[in-house]
Amino acid sequence: MFPAMRVLGIESSCDETAAALYGDAGLEADVVHSQTDLHAEHGGVVPELASRDHIRRLTPLVETVLDRAGLTPADLDGIAYTAGPGLVGALLVGATVGRSLAWALDRPAVGVHHMEGHLLAPLLEPEPPAFPFVALLVSGGHTLLAEVRGVGEYRLLGRSVDDAAGEAFDKTAKIMDLGYPGGPALAALAAEGQPGVYRLPRPMTDKPGLDFSFSGLKTRVRLELEALGEDRQARADLARGFEEAVAETLAIKATRALGATGLETLVVAGGVSANARLRATLDARVAERGGRVYYPRPAFCTDNAAMIAYAGWCRLGAGQNEPAAITVHPRWSLEALAAVRAGPA
């Protein structure tokens, strides 16, 4: 059982600036500022611009989340911030604010693994999954499968050997000139497409193992696109073919992971987990084997501080904290994390 704690979470790993409060009664407040408009004219995230905007936004966001909860900094029992993986400059902004606040308040602080935050996000829901389960994490920067036995008890089963699923969505959207952010725009176009017009490959599903590869799909889309011109329906059909290929590939590998581990619970998180076609495909395939899929609510699929606050609450409550050094990890393995032996109340 964890001692009573209220933890401030800070997220600044890429292009969202966020703050949240998590305590024994659950999530008390959270706020997110998206940098989408800032980066849209560049067609993607510009690291320097992202870092500068985090500097401008983060302290006011912390003040906002405290105001919404009716609290002051003195009411905090600990600070959690995203320490990696992510953009090094962006990570340093959140780590500096988190560490400085912890030092000023004489409170413990802990750096949280961004993907652990995503993995634990479904535990914020009213009906959370129970350990153990298989986690499928699908975002712009990561696609991986892991066996999860508890907080910090992760065994990597498979990962993308090239583009992550979200990265493939964004790059394919760019090829189709759909603007930024590309993933949602491509999904919207795919919703207008007809099923079965384009049957694109399901990469690496004909081979054993649980790794992924999505770079070839965007190349296939580029080749098909050259013959389409500006025919909107044909472009929508192609977008649907791409989306179906990604969704089915993820579903095939995820159910294969359930079979390999003997588990029946699948947790899906990360930005791509909000995709409606992926959810429908996963639900159907996992239900066929008598299992169940858990997702975070849409607001917690994308980067947010609620998941960081919760992960920090788990780790700080178990007595884990770190020296007052500002350290970030642009690359960081989930399997390197320490296990949390105590469980939430």
Tell me the radius of gyration: 20 Å
What portion of the residues fall into strands of 2 or more residues?
15-25%
CATH topology of the largest domain: Nucleotidyltransferase, domain 5
Largest sheet: 5 strands, mixed
- Strand tally is 10
Query: Portion of residues in helices?
Result: 40-55%
How are the strands ordered across the major sheet? 3-2-1-4-5
Q: Output the CATH homologous superfamily of the largest domain.
A: ATPase, nucleotide binding domain
- Structural domains: how many: 2
* Low-pLDDT stretches: none
Structural class call reads alpha/beta
Number of helices: 10
Topology pattern, helix = H, strand = E: EEEHHEHEHEEEHHHHEHEH
Distance between the termini: 5 Å
Shape: globular
In CATH terms, what is the architecture of the largest domain?
2-Layer Sandwich
Task: Output the CATH class name of the largest domain.
Answer: Alpha Beta
**Average pLDDT figure:** 94
Short structural description:
The protein is of the alpha/beta class. The chain has helices spanning 36-40, 47-69, 88-105, 114-120, 165-175, 182-190, 215-225, 232-261, 276-288, 306-317, and strands at residues 6-11, 16-23, 26-34, 78-84, 109-113, 133-138, 143-150, 153-159, 265-269, 292-294.
